[in-house]
């Protein structure tokens, strides 16, 4: 997968407004839209139509906490040539003045005009009624609208050729700017501070909810976002629940001696995510099998990260991890497998996934899977994760975030791996 690089000299004449509270510089927004248009032209696609907040806000700057309300439909159209446009409801017109860099903004909810009416107007004005338009149709994307609106759009624009835009969106956002990297780095620092403070502050009588509250308190004190569209933290914590992965709810059950405490996810900082996985054990020595898992996961993760540099392919990184796991005779304990093998099976199993890009969304390009041939490039940012375990004894996963550099990569998760020993009131946090 290649991405077009657009130099400042080749930027189109994007007619920008100067919002009161822009999240990034006008030059950065111009660069983003120019890169998007270059990718569209390279792929022979006439326009991009997006509805997800991650894409709308990334391109236009327009943002509001009301993204959490599902009847809010704010859409962007970026033509391969010409000026992009945003359609937004009348109630949030003030947010346009505060955040949006686009000049072409169509307001719906006035003069009898619906959001679909405004979208059709945009397509007519940009002469896209019989063109090829990429949409959020493929892996990791979705159309943020009621199904009835999508039916109406297809009925009123019957000659548009809708195509999967997942690859366009992935290429558009996978190379991070220096400011984006700085925000992800800070999100990692805050998340790691919160995990360490929570492990240090544990005492008997705490429930999962208590420990999550302590963790989030410390992250907020360090500058984490209180809220962002969708969530202020992508965070799951579980203790003693062996077979649950990132449970949505925290349990009222008191955390007990010998529990494995899993923390997955992290905070956002100015809209940008971290994704860290750490495991602690409460006031006990771990089962020898859990120690084997932790040692193998650490070795595999470190070897993969040491191998990341521009030009390496995702599938090659998966193969590196598999070799380490096989060397340590732990292959049958892989949890993320491409086939449905059980832990008791002696057949060869494969890692299906060991990571993903991270940024303004929690899962972005590049994906690190055995079937992904994409070569990595400088300034990609990713979360690398590996899990091993047994459904009766327990599981261990570690996850670190990295930035691809000119000749390698930098780990930006400043927290030791290994099984953390969590002591009541003591906080002996070293693994």
The CATH superfamily name of the largest domain is Creatinase/methionine aminopeptidase superfamily
Domain count: 2
CATH architecture of the largest domain: Alpha-Beta Complex
- Counting DSSP E segments of at least 2 residues, the number of strands comes to 16
The order of strands across the largest sheet is 4-3-2-1-5-6
Shape: globular
Helix content estimate: 25-40%
Q: What is the class of the largest domain in the CATH system?
A: Alpha Beta
Q: Which regions have little confidence, pLDDT < 50, spanning 5+ residues? A: 1-11, 337-348
Give me the number of helical elements: 10
Largest sheet: 6 strands, mixed
User: Mind telling me the C-alpha Rg?
Assistant: 23 Å
Strand composition percent: 15-25%
Mean pLDDT value? 89
End-to-end CA span: 39 Å
Counting helices, strands and paired strands, the structural category is alpha+beta
CATH topology of the largest domain: Creatine Amidinohydrolase
Question: Could you state the order of secondary-structure elements as H and E?
Answer: HEHEEHEHEHEHHHEEEEHHEEEEEE
């Amino acid at each position: 997968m290649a991405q077009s690089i657009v130099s400042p000299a080749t930027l189109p004449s994007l007619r920008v407004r100067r919002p009161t509270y822009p999240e990034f510089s006008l030059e950065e927004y111009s660069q983003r839209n120019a890169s998007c248009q270059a990718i569209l032209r390279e792929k022979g696609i006439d326009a991009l139509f997006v509805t997800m907040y991650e894409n709308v806000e990334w391109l236009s700057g327009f943002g509001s906490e009301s993204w959490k309300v599902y009847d809010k439909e704010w859409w962007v159209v970026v033509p391969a040539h010409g000026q992009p446009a945003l359609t937004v409801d009348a109630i949030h017109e003030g947010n346009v003045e505060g955040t949006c860099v686009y000049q072409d903004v169509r307001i719906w909810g006035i003069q009898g005009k619906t959001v679909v009416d405004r979208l059709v107007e945009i397509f007519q004005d940009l002469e896209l009624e019989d063109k090829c338009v990429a949409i959020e149709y493929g892996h990791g994307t979705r159309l943020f609208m009621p199904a009835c609106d999508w039916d109406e759009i297809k009925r009123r624009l019957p000659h548009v050729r809708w195509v999967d835009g997942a690859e366009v969106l992935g290429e558009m956002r996978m190379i991070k700017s220096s400011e984006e990297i700085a925000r992800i780095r800070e999100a990692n620092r805050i998340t790691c501070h919160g995990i360490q403070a929570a492990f240090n502050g544990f005492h008997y009588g705490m429930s999962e909810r208590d420990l999550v509250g302590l963790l989030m308190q410390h992250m907020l004190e360090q500058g984490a976002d209180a809220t962002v569209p969708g969530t202020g933290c992508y965070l799951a914590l579980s203790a003693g629940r062996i077979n649950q992965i990132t449970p949505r709810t925290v349990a009222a059950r008191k955390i007990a001696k010998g529990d494995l405490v899993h923390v997955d996810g992290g905070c956002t900082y100015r809209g940008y995510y971290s994704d860290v996985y750490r495991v602690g054990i409460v006031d006990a020595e771990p089962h020898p099998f859990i120690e084997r898992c932790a040692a193998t996961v650490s070795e595999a993760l470190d070897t993969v990260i040491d191998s990341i540099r521009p030009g390496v392919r995702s599938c090659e990184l998966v193969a590196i991890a598999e070799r380490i796991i096989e060397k340590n005779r732990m292959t049958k304990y892989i949890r993320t497998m491409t086939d449905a093998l059980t832990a008791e099976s002696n057949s060869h199993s494969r890692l299906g996934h060991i990571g993903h890009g991270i940024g303004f969304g929690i899962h972005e390009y590049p994906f690190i899977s055995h079937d992904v041939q994409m070569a990595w490039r400088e300034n990609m940012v990713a979360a690398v994760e590996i899990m091993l375990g047994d459904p009766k004894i327990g599981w261990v996963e570690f996850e670190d975030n990295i930035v691809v550099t000119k000749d390698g990569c930098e780990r930006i998760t400043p927290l030791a791996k290994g099984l953390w020993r969590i002591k009541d009131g003591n906080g002996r946090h070293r693994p």
